[in-house]
Amino acid sequence: MSRRFENKVAIVTGAAAGIGRACMIRLASEGATVIGTDINRDKLDAAVAAAGPGAHGLICDSADPSAIEAMVAEVIARFGAIHVLINNAGIGPRQRLRLHEQPPEDWDRVMGVNVRGVYLMQRAIIPHMLAQGSGSIVNMASTGSFRATAMSSPYITSKGAVLMMTRAAAAEYARDNIRINAVCPGTTNTDILANSSAEMIEMLVARSPQGRLGQPEEVAALVAFLASDEAPHIHGGAYIIDGGRSAI
Ligand SMILES: NC(=O)c1ccc[n+]([C@@H]2O[C@H](COP(=O)([O-])OP(=O)(O)OC[C@H]3O[C@@H](n4cnc5c(N)ncnc54)[C@H](O)[C@@H]3O)[C@@H](O)[C@H]2O)c1
């Protein structure tokens, strides 16, 4: 394993499970000091333990601006800088419903984490990147940023917004040596699929050219490349990782 993140401090949101957990483990294995944030204390502790001595866990709700401010202040006080932000925390709606049936409170809950949370995290961290003259941000979008599926309109809407937020921010910070990209996974084998029926998963696998779901570690490998100094000219992009599903 290369050591692309030696002497770098990275924050990964939603690091207790799934893709975020895999990102924390990957960055730590490449030498980063990684601060994983989440709202699930038990799972976060287990993920930090799996990532090894370079990893630290902080409870932080991505939808809560004051929690984010406090978390960022603590990271700066303890580690001195933030070089990398992986804006990964994301949720789906509680129920699969058509648009007019979606309860407004569930709409707001999904937007609060998936869109406002991604904005709030950048709002708190970009000033530190501007002051140090560099930074790299990866926002977790989805193939749903490009292509709708039925019965999940808050999620699909939120991931379209993450893609355009990434592009807007990329236009604003390019001259400040802050790179911002989006990663767009297809269906990946994590707890986010807990509400999906076995038939639904079977159908997703059948539609995949590779005949399987993605693995969180495969997404983490792409995230690590984009966040690293190996990708200095990659900025404002949206990188699909879906085993060929979008190609057909
Ligand atoms: N798994 C997929 O098929 C898939 C596909 C495309 C995009 N994504 C995106 O990847 C990201 C990670 O998804 P995953 O599949 O690993 O999900 P997951 O449910 O396995 O893990 C998400 C983590 O985020 C945490 N979290 C939830 N709300 C939070 C909040 N308010 N503040 C902080 N942490 C919070 C959860 O506790 C959990 O640990 C999400 O943005 C998701 O939309 C996933």
Automatic annotation (TrEMBL):
Keywords: Oxidoreductase. The keyword Oxidoreductase applies. The keyword Membrane does not apply. InterPro entries: NAD(P)-bd_dom_sf (IPR036291), SDR_DHRS6-like (IPR051122), SDR_fam (IPR002347). One of its GO terms (molecular function) is oxidoreductase activity. CDD domains: SDR_c. PANTHER family: DIHYDROANTICAPSIN 7-DEHYDROGENASE. Belongs to the short-chain dehydrogenases/reductases (SDR) family. This is NAD(P)-dependent oxidoreductase.
